[in-house]
Backbone:
């Protein structure tokens, strides 16, 4: 049997020239459409984190919500959504991050985590790392400790995982795609 990471990587669809020419979009929706593949994926994360001292799982808008909420449920932990600006109904704190052309902001509820809580930060993919780094900063501003930044896919050529490590975060992904 092939390794879980190879099996999962083989199920990721590559869409050429989307959303713009030259981009190789790594589409994770086939992972979630097939029940066996989705279970293998979630089990891979659960087995990694089940014995770690984690209080909360935080997922980044939007695909990080899918992975993060299922992971939180399986680990019997709470889930924290990190949303795009203006999407949360209660008091929030925000963090800006750079985009290719301009900036964006992510927010979290001001009471989403408490000082000393250990949080696993989850997204579907690490590209430039800007969104995940902004999410980590939000959690840290609330006093939480980000145990690890995790995702299904790493795109190492874009430097995001290295940027996260340089920012003091441990990083783990299921698989990586060279070239973007």
Residues:
């Amino acid at each position: 049997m092939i390794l879980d990471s190879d099996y999962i990587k083989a199920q990721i669809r590559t869409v050429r020239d989307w959303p713009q020419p030259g981009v190789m979009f790594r589409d994770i929706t086939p992972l979630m459409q097939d029940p066996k593949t989705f279970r293998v994926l979630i089990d891979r994360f659960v087995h990694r984190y089940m014995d770690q001292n984690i209080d909360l799982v935080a997922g980044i808008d939007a695909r990080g919500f899918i992975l993060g909420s299922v992971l939180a449920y399986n680990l019997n932990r709470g889930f924290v959504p990190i949303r795009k600006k203006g999407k949360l109904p209660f008091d929030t704190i925000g963090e800006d991050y750079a985009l290719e052309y301009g900036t964006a902001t992510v927010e979290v509820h001001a009471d989403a985590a408490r000082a000393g809580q250990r949080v696993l930060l989850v997204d579907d993919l690490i590209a430039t790392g800007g969104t995940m780094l902004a999410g980590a900063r939000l959690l840290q501003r609330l006093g939480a400790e980000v145990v690890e930044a995790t995702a299904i896919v790493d795109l190492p050529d874009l430097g995001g995982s290295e940027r996260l490590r340089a920012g003091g975060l441990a990083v783990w992904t299921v698989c990586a795609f060279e070239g973007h």
